[in-house]
Amino acid sequence: MGDLYILNTRCKLTDKIRETFEKAGFKVKVSTDSGVSDENLKGAKGFTAICIFVNKCIKPEQVEILKENGNKLILHCSAGFDNSPTEELKAAGISAARVPSYSPGSIAEYAVTQIMALAKNTHMSYVMTKKADFEITNMQCLLLENKTCGVIGTGLIGKKCAMKISGLVEKVLCFDVYPDNEWIKTIPNASYADMDTVLRNSDFISIHVPLLPQTHHLINEEAFAKMKNDVVLVNTSRGEIVHIPSLIKALEAKKLWGVALDVFEGEKKYIFHDKSKAGFRDDPDLARLAQFEHVILSSHIAFYTDQAVDQITAKTIENYMGFVGKGTKDEKAFIC
User: Fold this and answer.
1) Which of 44, 57, 180, 266 gives 20 to 30 Å between its CA and that of 89?
2) How far apart are alpha carbons 89 and 321 in whole angstroms?
């Protein structure tokens, strides 16, 4: 019946992927509903592959629908693949592929941008001056050049972040369970340290770790207790890394200067959707978080640049071509 069924991403990625596949002669259908309901998945009947982005999640019990559909491949348009049930897919004989890396500089730049925004109160100034309020009593900023930035996780994105922030701060402290001791030598003011040292000595902390059992709620009450006062925390990795109730407690205690979360636990029903009418009425923790002036919540957009969209699209069609035997299959991109 068809080649690719796209679960609508509600961003330009959908159009780019559709146009690229159709130009290559493949038949594509985009779901009218952006959710991952059973009915929406049934719309993929007869299609070889289903394309899924980070704001979608296929549940284990829905794999049976994919089998009945005759679907053979899940194409993740992301590096992460925790939003599909790998073991259940494997048992059903359905393959899955991902985009291992796409424009790490895009996400790193966003992290650095949010550090700058919070340190310089840019977000506050923007809101105030729109109302002709030019008061500066509470607008004192932080200087970066005499500060230390902690980078938790030095994969491709973490490395880019450390490199970009190194010219702005005095010192960069990095933590990774698998330190790259050759790479760290390329940044004169950077060094590896253990997690406790990074937490205790950093004025800014940027998180770049994958979501794994050992990183789930990595930033919890114990971690906040170790941090310096007036620390700036940025998370562009996975929402579940930061424990929201612990974060709220730290904010209420005025432990942090500011927080920027491009990802947050429970984000999937919000990101890429306009929820302004309902607000956070069903999520009291998020409602409380949004009340803090020095908290920036964004819509999982750190990745969203022209280069990233191009690279995600290119790797997604490469994965499909490799799967159907029309190109070289990149085994490293295939999860199962």
Assistant:
1) 266
2) 20
